[in-house]
């Protein structure tokens, strides 16, 4: 503790107080006489009745205006970290939530019927001062604990959902006691939610309470049981074959990771204390408060008298359940003949000429069968026909990808700021969207046509320029296309198209390296030296 000596000790045992030096006792018990009653004190923010070793509640009501701010201030002033009176405060929180639904200001006067409801709750609030909860779960007359069980209840309603945990102790004489450890009551969200989902949220709350108790409770627990009065939730938990929607699936994942299927049991609603947490309670309703603080009566009896286990009687989740994820088989089909035509060709020139022939055939049919006065050309395709075909193809591409932008530009209104082409300052010219950008003073006759990067026609155009320029690199291809087109994410598309070019792959493949012959034996095997000198050689003087 940082080397500090702890002082201001307080205990409910007089023998312990006698053993502590007077200088280290709490001021309230320094001059305590043997016949004096031990005083009340605060322990971690709650009132501790030291003489009876019980936790009590103190209500200090102050005058607050009847506004959202004043009501929230009073509700928040009740400090209840263990949720022992959470069903009481739930109804007050519901009033605050209803005022939020009305979208009232913080200091606006609230409607009269909410004023009456708030005053009734405020009048009954002092009744919680008469409540007391034993600080120690084990009574003084209890002998050695033979069995310790943890029972967690959960429930949900239109008002909210909640959970509570009880510790059931059995001593050597088979005497049983049951105490509330912790409770939690939460309001249902403002957005409408089904009852099964709220009950499932209550079950998740029970699992989270268990995780807290599993870490903090020092008593060794022999058995853990989870109770709920919802057969739908039990059916969801025991389901192993069907897939649920995301909300249900995520909460079932938490439940399955925290508990086992055998730990869940069914309890009827009148015997479920969590029903009190989910619906709220009046502070003066002593009967329900007794059930809330001490648990249902069947926990004080032998396990053979507990509610019947419905494990084998639960019905499986049916296909009509609204929480089931629908399994739909999807088969992609192209119903647009224009898309089929454009995806059929792998060459821009061939697509262009085929479209031009179709347009000429259309004019021929109008002249022949509909008696329209149109000029129908014969012979080879002309340059003007190819240009018309190109415009028809590009208009179709843009109408697919820039539908909203075309509607805006036709009304002479700017495109949305989050549009992909908003930064290009687009303009509409002969039904084609062009990138005006900062080129208004350039000497070009036409602004570049905007094209999406993920369309087959755009890839054909890039491939056409790549091949027409003699299979040049990325920068040259990009510069050539931008003379007429502005492709979104152009560098990435050019890189992708060139990377798929077979002639370029063949031309730029790694050079072949001739395999070298193996080394000679004389190069790798050690041999005797070629010169052998006798004892009498020219080197004798050096020896």
UniProtKB/TrEMBL annotation:
<dbReference type="InterPro" id="IPR041588">
    <property type="entry name" value="Integrase_H2C2"/>
</dbReference>
<dbReference type="Pfam" id="PF05380">
    <property type="entry name" value="Peptidase_A17"/>
</dbReference>
<feature type="domain" description="Integrase zinc-binding">
    <location>
        <begin position="456"/>
        <end position="507"/>
    </location>
</feature>
<protein>
    <recommendedName>
        <fullName>Integrase zinc-binding domain-containing protein</fullName>
    </recommendedName>
</protein>
<dbReference type="Pfam" id="PF17921">
    <property type="entry name" value="Integrase_H2C2"/>
</dbReference>
<dbReference type="InterPro" id="IPR008042">
    <property type="entry name" value="Retrotrans_Pao"/>
</dbReference>
